[in-house]
Amino acid sequence: MLNEKVTKLLNNQVNKEFYSAYLYLYFSNYYVEQGLNGFANWYQIQAQEERDHAMLMMQYLQNNDETVTFEAIDKPSVELTGNLSPLKEGLKHEQYVTSLIHTIYAQAYEVKDFRTMQFLDWFVKEQGEEETNASDLVKKMELFGSDPKSLYMLDQEMGARVYSAPSLTL
Ligand SMILES: [Fe+2]
Q1: Does residue 23 sit within a domain?
Q2: Which domain holds residue 106?
Q3: Integer angstrom CA distances of residue 31 from 71, 72, 83, 168
Q4: Which of 4, 129, 134, 139 is packed most tightly, with the most Cβ within 10 A?
Protein backbone atom coordinates (compact mmCIF):
# COMPACT_ATOMS: atom_id res chain seq x y z
CA MET A 1 0.00 0.00 0.00
CA LEU A 2 1.10 3.54 -0.69
CA ASN A 3 0.77 6.73 1.31
CA GLU A 4 -2.78 8.09 1.11
CA LYS A 5 -1.77 11.50 -0.26
CA VAL A 6 0.57 9.95 -2.84
CA THR A 7 -2.21 7.62 -3.97
CA LYS A 8 -4.66 10.50 -4.30
CA LEU A 9 -2.19 12.54 -6.34
CA LEU A 10 -1.41 9.58 -8.61
CA ASN A 11 -5.12 8.98 -9.17
CA ASN A 12 -5.54 12.64 -10.00
CA GLN A 13 -2.61 12.37 -12.41
CA VAL A 14 -4.32 9.49 -14.25
CA ASN A 15 -7.16 11.92 -14.95
CA LYS A 16 -4.73 14.68 -15.99
CA GLU A 17 -2.96 12.36 -18.43
CA PHE A 18 -6.25 11.37 -20.03
CA TYR A 19 -7.14 15.06 -20.17
CA SER A 20 -3.81 15.69 -21.94
CA ALA A 21 -4.73 13.03 -24.51
CA TYR A 22 -8.13 14.71 -24.94
CA LEU A 23 -6.52 18.16 -25.30
CA TYR A 24 -4.07 16.91 -27.93
CA LEU A 25 -6.83 15.20 -29.90
CA TYR A 26 -8.62 18.55 -29.81
CA PHE A 27 -5.48 20.17 -31.29
CA SER A 28 -5.27 17.36 -33.85
CA ASN A 29 -8.88 17.92 -34.93
CA TYR A 30 -8.23 21.64 -35.17
CA TYR A 31 -5.24 21.12 -37.47
CA VAL A 32 -7.31 18.79 -39.68
CA GLU A 33 -9.70 21.69 -40.15
CA GLN A 34 -6.75 23.96 -41.02
CA GLY A 35 -5.62 21.50 -43.70
CA LEU A 36 -2.41 20.75 -41.80
CA ASN A 37 -2.59 16.96 -41.61
CA GLY A 38 1.04 16.63 -40.55
CA PHE A 39 0.44 18.69 -37.42
CA ALA A 40 -2.75 16.71 -36.87
CA ASN A 41 -0.71 13.50 -37.05
CA TRP A 42 1.86 14.83 -34.59
CA TYR A 43 -0.80 15.63 -31.99
CA GLN A 44 -2.63 12.37 -32.56
CA ILE A 45 0.58 10.52 -31.67
CA GLN A 46 1.09 12.88 -28.74
CA ALA A 47 -2.38 11.90 -27.52
CA GLN A 48 -1.41 8.22 -27.73
CA GLU A 49 1.63 8.97 -25.55
CA GLU A 50 -0.55 10.68 -22.97
CA ARG A 51 -2.85 7.67 -22.85
CA ASP A 52 0.26 5.52 -22.27
CA HIS A 53 1.20 7.77 -19.35
CA ALA A 54 -2.26 7.27 -17.82
CA MET A 55 -1.98 3.50 -18.31
CA LEU A 56 1.42 3.43 -16.60
CA MET A 57 0.06 5.37 -13.62
CA MET A 58 -2.90 2.99 -13.37
CA GLN A 59 -0.61 -0.04 -13.58
CA TYR A 60 1.63 1.38 -10.88
CA LEU A 61 -1.33 1.94 -8.55
CA GLN A 62 -2.61 -1.57 -9.21
CA ASN A 63 0.83 -3.13 -8.72
CA ASN A 64 0.73 -1.56 -5.27
CA ASP A 65 -2.78 -2.86 -4.50
CA GLU A 66 -4.31 0.58 -4.74
CA THR A 67 -7.71 1.32 -6.28
CA VAL A 68 -7.83 3.32 -9.49
CA THR A 69 -10.48 6.03 -9.20
CA PHE A 70 -11.89 7.74 -12.28
CA GLU A 71 -13.27 11.27 -12.39
CA ALA A 72 -14.88 13.09 -15.33
CA ILE A 73 -12.44 14.37 -17.95
CA ASP A 74 -12.71 18.14 -18.47
CA LYS A 75 -13.68 19.62 -21.82
CA PRO A 76 -10.67 21.37 -23.44
CA SER A 77 -11.42 25.04 -22.82
CA VAL A 78 -8.62 26.76 -24.76
CA GLU A 79 -9.53 29.00 -27.70
CA LEU A 80 -7.51 28.21 -30.83
CA THR A 81 -6.73 30.72 -33.58
CA GLY A 82 -4.17 30.52 -36.39
CA ASN A 83 -1.45 27.88 -36.63
CA LEU A 84 0.67 28.90 -33.67
CA SER A 85 -1.78 28.94 -30.76
CA PRO A 86 -2.10 25.14 -30.30
CA LEU A 87 1.71 24.91 -30.10
CA LYS A 88 1.85 27.67 -27.49
CA GLU A 89 -1.00 26.12 -25.52
CA GLY A 90 0.79 22.77 -25.79
CA LEU A 91 3.95 24.23 -24.26
CA LYS A 92 1.97 25.86 -21.45
CA HIS A 93 0.20 22.59 -20.78
CA GLU A 94 3.43 20.59 -20.60
CA GLN A 95 4.87 23.11 -18.14
CA TYR A 96 1.75 22.65 -16.04
CA VAL A 97 2.04 18.84 -16.19
CA THR A 98 5.67 19.11 -15.10
CA SER A 99 4.54 21.05 -12.03
CA LEU A 100 1.98 18.30 -11.25
CA ILE A 101 4.59 15.54 -11.51
CA HIS A 102 6.92 17.56 -9.27
CA THR A 103 4.15 17.94 -6.68
CA ILE A 104 3.66 14.16 -6.55
CA TYR A 105 7.43 13.70 -6.32
CA ALA A 106 7.64 16.18 -3.45
CA GLN A 107 4.90 14.33 -1.58
CA ALA A 108 6.62 10.96 -2.13
CA TYR A 109 9.87 12.52 -0.92
CA GLU A 110 8.18 13.86 2.19
CA VAL A 111 6.95 10.42 3.25
CA LYS A 112 10.15 8.64 2.10
CA ASP A 113 8.27 6.71 -0.55
CA PHE A 114 11.37 5.74 -2.52
CA ARG A 115 9.46 3.37 -4.77
CA THR A 116 7.20 6.10 -6.08
CA MET A 117 10.13 8.47 -6.45
CA GLN A 118 11.90 5.90 -8.61
CA PHE A 119 8.72 5.32 -10.63
CA LEU A 120 8.36 9.08 -11.17
CA ASP A 121 11.99 9.55 -12.23
CA TRP A 122 11.00 8.41 -15.73
CA PHE A 123 8.19 10.99 -15.81
CA VAL A 124 10.47 13.79 -14.62
CA LYS A 125 12.81 13.04 -17.54
CA GLU A 126 9.90 12.61 -19.95
CA GLN A 127 8.53 16.03 -18.96
CA GLY A 128 11.90 17.62 -19.71
CA GLU A 129 11.74 16.12 -23.20
CA GLU A 130 8.11 17.13 -23.70
CA GLU A 131 8.87 20.73 -22.79
CA THR A 132 11.85 20.80 -25.17
CA ASN A 133 9.77 19.35 -28.02
CA ALA A 134 6.90 21.77 -27.41
CA SER A 135 9.24 24.75 -27.20
CA ASP A 136 11.05 23.70 -30.41
CA LEU A 137 7.72 23.55 -32.24
CA VAL A 138 6.81 27.08 -31.12
CA LYS A 139 10.21 28.37 -32.30
CA LYS A 140 9.95 26.60 -35.67
CA MET A 141 6.45 27.95 -36.31
CA GLU A 142 7.51 31.46 -35.29
CA LEU A 143 10.47 31.29 -37.66
CA PHE A 144 8.92 29.56 -40.67
CA GLY A 145 5.15 29.48 -40.21
CA SER A 146 4.38 32.66 -42.13
CA ASP A 147 6.01 31.37 -45.32
CA PRO A 148 3.65 28.93 -47.16
CA LYS A 149 6.45 26.79 -48.62
CA SER A 150 8.16 26.43 -45.26
CA LEU A 151 4.85 25.70 -43.57
CA TYR A 152 4.25 22.95 -46.12
CA MET A 153 7.64 21.41 -45.36
CA LEU A 154 7.08 21.72 -41.61
CA ASP A 155 3.75 19.95 -42.04
CA GLN A 156 5.50 17.15 -43.97
CA GLU A 157 8.04 16.83 -41.15
CA MET A 158 5.28 16.63 -38.54
CA GLY A 159 3.49 14.05 -40.66
CA ALA A 160 6.53 11.76 -40.54
CA ARG A 161 6.25 11.21 -36.79
CA VAL A 162 5.42 7.62 -35.90
CA TYR A 163 4.21 6.20 -32.62
CA SER A 164 6.55 4.25 -30.40
CA ALA A 165 5.62 2.65 -27.09
CA PRO A 166 7.00 4.21 -23.89
CA SER A 167 10.45 3.08 -22.75
CA LEU A 168 9.13 2.48 -19.23
CA THR A 169 7.67 -0.92 -18.46
CA LEU A 170 6.23 -2.02 -15.13
FE1 LIG B 1 1.96 12.99 -20.05
Answers
A1: yes
A2: 4-159
A3: 28, 25, 8, 30
A4: 134
Burial class (CB in 10 A: 0-12, 13-18, 19+), 4: exposed
Quote the ligand 1 centre to 148 CA distance (angstroms): 31
Contacts of 30 (CB under 8 A, 6+ apart): 80, 86
37 lies in some domain:
yes
Global confidence as pTM: 0.96
- How many angstroms is it from 147 CA to the middle of ligand 1? 32
Q: What percent of the chain has pLDDT over 70?
A: 100
| Number of domains present in the structure of the chain | 1
CATH of residue 84: 1.20.1260.10
